[in-house]
């Protein structure tokens, strides 16, 4: 169901099995993140959020930051919630965190993911380069994108 409202909160280790399910749904034919990868990200103290609708995890996003730069590691929203602003909510929260630190933000995105590219461009990202065959095993290309540091 897609009723109710979406709230954001810290992603928990208990959410990891659902994250894996979402990865498998959204990225068939690729090398989706394992549960261990999610646990590692959380254990390393990276900034991860969950998007919850009626207490169900419908999306997640993660940011790794140093004192010099931040990197969006992932943003994913289940298909039946896409196009409803959930990805935007998650991205804005990640950018708020980067802005608190005052660092530029970088990411990679599939060159054929037009909705995500449009969202990033609308939030101040620019194309920086191209990584050929970045996604495996499909060999899909990725754009590298970046957004300048902003201070709050």
UniProtKB/TrEMBL annotation:
<dbReference type="InterPro" id="IPR006464">
    <property type="entry name" value="AcTrfase_RimI/Ard1"/>
</dbReference>
<dbReference type="InterPro" id="IPR016181">
    <property type="entry name" value="Acyl_CoA_acyltransferase"/>
</dbReference>
<dbReference type="InterPro" id="IPR050832">
    <property type="entry name" value="Bact_Acetyltransf"/>
</dbReference>
<dbReference type="GO" id="GO:0005737">
    <property type="term" value="C:cytoplasm"/>
</dbReference>
<dbReference type="Pfam" id="PF00583">
    <property type="entry name" value="Acetyltransf_1"/>
</dbReference>
<feature type="domain" description="N-acetyltransferase">
    <location>
        <begin position="6"/>
        <end position="150"/>
    </location>
</feature>
<keyword id="KW-0808">Transferase</keyword>
<protein>
    <recommendedName>
        <fullName>[Ribosomal protein bS18]-alanine N-acetyltransferase</fullName>
        <ecNumber>2.3.1.266</ecNumber>
    </recommendedName>
</protein>
<comment type="function">
    <text>Acetylates the N-terminal alanine of ribosomal protein bS18.</text>
</comment>
<keyword id="KW-0012">Acyltransferase</keyword>
<dbReference type="GO" id="GO:0008999">
    <property type="term" value="F:protein-N-terminal-alanine acetyltransferase activity"/>
</dbReference>
<keyword id="KW-0963">Cytoplasm</keyword>
<dbReference type="InterPro" id="IPR000182">
    <property type="entry name" value="GNAT_dom"/>
</dbReference>
<comment type="similarity">
    <text>Belongs to the acetyltransferase family. RimI subfamily.</text>
</comment>
């Amino acid at each position: 169901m897609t009723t109710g409202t979406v709230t954001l909160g810290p992603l928990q280790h208990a959410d990891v099995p659902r994250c894996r399910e979402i990865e498998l749904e959204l990225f068939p034919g690729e090398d989706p993140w394992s549960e261990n990868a999610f646990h590692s990200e959380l254990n390393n103290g990276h900034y991860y959020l969950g998007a919850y609708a009626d207490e169900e995890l419908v999306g997640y996003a993660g940011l790794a930051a140093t004192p010099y730069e931040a990197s969006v590691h992932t943003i994913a929203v289940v298909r039946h919630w896409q196009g409803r602003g959930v990805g935007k909510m998650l991205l804005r929260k990640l950018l708020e965190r980067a802005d608190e630190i005052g660092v530029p933000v970088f990411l990679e995105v599939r060159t054929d993911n037009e909705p995500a590219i449009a969202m990033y461009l609308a939030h101040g990202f620019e194309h920086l380069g191209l990584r050929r065959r970045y996604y495996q095993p499909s060999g899909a290309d990725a754009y590298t994108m970046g957004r300048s540091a902003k201070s709050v």
